[in-house]
Design goal:
This protein starts with 6 loop residues before the first strand and ends in a 7-residue tail after the last helix. It has helices at about 15-25, 40-45, 50-65, 80-105, 165-170, 185-195, 215-230, 285, 320-335, 365-370, 385-390, 420-430, 435-440, 450-460, and strands at about 5-10, 30-35, 110-115, 115-120, 125, 135, 140-145, 145-150, 160-165, 175-180, 200-205, 230-235, 235-245, 250-255, 260-265, 270, 275, 310, 350, 355-360, 375-380, 395-405, 410-415. The longest helix is centred in the N-terminal third of the chain and has 25 residues, at about 80-105. With about 475 residues, the chain is an alpha/beta fold. α1 packs parallel to α9 and α3 runs parallel beside α6.
């Protein structure tokens, strides 16, 4: 073995590569291990980036084929070239994954291709694509292996007719009918893509509402908007089986609380009930690293129970979001280098990139009520926002929750065009411990969608000015 690394990172997704970049910047001798052909993890390869590319392209297609005439733009004979759309998506993915590999070189990070396995607190074995093995010594090991699509008993995912997010991003033709199992982020985003391109999309959800972890008021309005767009919902329903027939799929469902079964038919079924940590073959049991019953690596301030071994991202508890993993990765590099490192888990934004978007940060009303925290609410609808009216994009609203005594912002929940970009303002405000009054007294450009944030903040104290 050569001179020990300061850290070896197992997993080349957003958590892993951001940890590697920051470690390289801090002068630490660093290696990153990735079993897939390219860096970037699920996010860049089969998740965040390709799905956003298709969401953007499908929104343009739907606009040109169904809605632009409303604005006086008459485009006759609009046609879908799905192959070209997929090629542009792949082009975006390829460029970004190559960019990550370049950043490894730029920051003097060794890129070790293969499957990593922890042998001990100071050793990682790499099995390369050709089957050879190499042992590397290191002072620190970072587990950043991410997650994989969760399955349902008895339902086989073949990535052709019954697909996960991976197969849903690679369909060669638009299905006539698609059934989406799960009304979370992945199901609603990818369901929106294929609905816009012409599929009849039915979403089956075990619970009684979409986006079950979201603020209830936001969740219910979000569902109404998606239903108005043509998405069909079967809520409070349990999927019992998916039968593959020659020309179609038959999906058996029944009420979650019991009741009469019913049959749905589809050309494609998308299984999107969530994700589970990916730690197979990592050697956790042999080393004695603690996990919970669902397989998540247990950590305290990013540390596992074994000194010198750390874990970040989707394989640990917390929201399974790329930016959460990025924050953990960069901060962990700081900690290993003997510097500051802290992640504020109360300020992790969440966005669903449908149209309109849904964005949130902080506590929901239900969480505040359950915790017995007194709060005040300010709301503002986009129907009263000048820019939204001018753009004819008035679906949704902004809701700000503030502490009843201190006025400190505790949460913000939004539905609307582009709110995924707007949520950052509230994240900054919450990091600085801002009050709703701070946002209300901050001048915002007119006319902009972001004025709705200011008006909602004004609403906390009852002085909204544009309603």
């Amino acid at each position: 073995m050569s001179e020990p690394y300061d850290l070896i990172i197992i997993g080349g997704g957003p958590g892993g590569y951001n940890c590697a970049i920051r470690a390289g910047q801090l002068g630490l001798r660093t290696a990153i291990v990735e079993k897939s052909p390219t860096l970037g993890g699920t996010c860049l390869n089969v998740g965040c980036i390709p799905s956003k590319a298709l969401l953007n392209a499908s929104e343009k297609f739907e606009g040109a084929s169904r809605h632009y005439a409303e604005y006086g733009i008459e485009a006759a004979g609009v046609k879908l070239n799905l192959g070209k759309m997929m090629a542009k998506k792949d082009e975006a993915v390829s460029g970004l994954t190559k960019g990550v590999e370049f950043l490894m070189k730029k920051n003097k990070v060794d890129y070790l291709k293969g499957m990593g396995r922890i042998v001990s607190a100071g050793q990682v074995e790499i099995t390369t694509p050709d089957g050879s093995k190499a042992l590397h010594a290191t002072r620190n090991i970072v587990i950043a292996t991410g997650s994989e699509s969760a399955g349902l008993p008895g339902i086989e995912v073949d990535e052709e007719r019954v697909v996960s997010n991976v197969g849903a991003l690679r369909l060669s033709k638009v299905p006539g009918r698609m059934v989406v199992i799960g009304a979370g982020v992945i199901g609603l985003e990818l369901g929106s893509v294929w609905r816009r391109l012409g599929a009849e999309v039915t979403v089956v959800e075990y619970l009684d509402r979409v986006t079950p972890s979201a603020d209830v008021e936001v969740s219910r309005q979000f569902q109404r908007i998606l239903a108005k767009q043509g998405m069909i919902f079967e809520l409070g329903m349990k999927v019992l089986a998916v039968e593959k027939l020659k020309s179609k799929l038959k999906i058996t469902v029944e009420p979650a609380q019991g009741g009469e079964k019913k049959m749905l038919e589809a050309d494609i079924v998308l299984l999107a009930i969530g994700r589970r940590p990916f730690t197979a073959g990592l050697g956790l049991e042999a080393v004695g690293i603690r996990t919970d019953a669902r397989g998540f690596v247990l950590t305290e301030h990013l540390r596992t129970n074994i000194p010198g071994i750390w874990a970040i991202g989707d394989c640990t508890h917390g929201p399974m979001l790329a930016h959460k993993a990025e924050d953990e990765g960069a901060n962990l590099a700081q900690i290993i280098a003997g510097k500051w490192g802290h992640v504020n888990y109360d300020v992790i934004p969440n966005v669903i990139y449908t149209h309109p978007e849904m964005a949130s940060v902080g506590k929901t009303e239900e969480e505040l009520k359950n915790a017995g925290i007194a709060y005040k609410t300010g709301k503002f609808p986009f129907t009263a926002n000048s820019r939204a009216r001018a753009n004819q994009d008035t679906d949704g609203f902004v809701k700000i929750l503030a502490d009843a005594k201190t006025d400190r912002i505790l949460g913000c929940h939004m539905i609307g065009a582009g709110v995924g970009e707007m949520i950052g303002e509230i994240c900054v405000a919450m990091e600085f411990g801002a009050s709703s009054e701070d946002v209300a007294r901050t001048c915002h450009a007119h006319p902009t969608m972001s004025e709705a944030l200011r008006q909602a903040a004004m609403g906390v104290e009852g002085w909204t000015m544009q309603m």
